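Structure tokens
________________
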Amino acid sequence: MADAVAPRPISQILALPGFDLLARLALASPFLISGVMKLLDFEGAMTEVAGMGLGPAGPFALAVIITQIGGSLLFLTRRYCWLGAGILAGFTIVATLLAHPFWAFEGPDRGRQTATFFEHVVIVGGFAMAVLSVNGRSKQP
């Protein structure tokens, strides 16, 4: 079976300079924005992690901020995209298991939590696809 080839207009869009960076920025933006917002409101960040049963809240909140901002910045580079993707994917898996345990809910809440859980699974898949895309292109800094 032959490899699928995107139609020429799609290939041209995908080949635009900076398109891959823009796509990675779109994927990283929730983490980058969340990390900056937590940094600006550290008390709120501590309240959030404490609400998930994590403590001591200060070190956990700081770890979340470093993970979200640092992982995003690494993900936006070509050289360390793989590392940033791994950091953010790992963070997403842990955060999703803590924040959206759909199996612990009943009725409509279970449906909402299940949908949110699997939306986060999609994000993890997006990180994997981004790394595959970056690694499939020419080696650029």
